[in-house]
Amino acid sequence: MPREGGHLRLLVECGSGTYVRSLVRDLGERLGCGAHVTALRRLWVEPFTAPRLYGFDELEAIAAEGGAAALDAVLLPLEAGLAGLPRLDLDAAEAGRLAQGQVLAGRGQAAGRCLACGPDGRAVALVEVDARGDVRSRRGFSPPAETPANPVQSST
Question: Considering the entire predicted model, what is its pTM?
Answer without folding.
Answer: 0.59
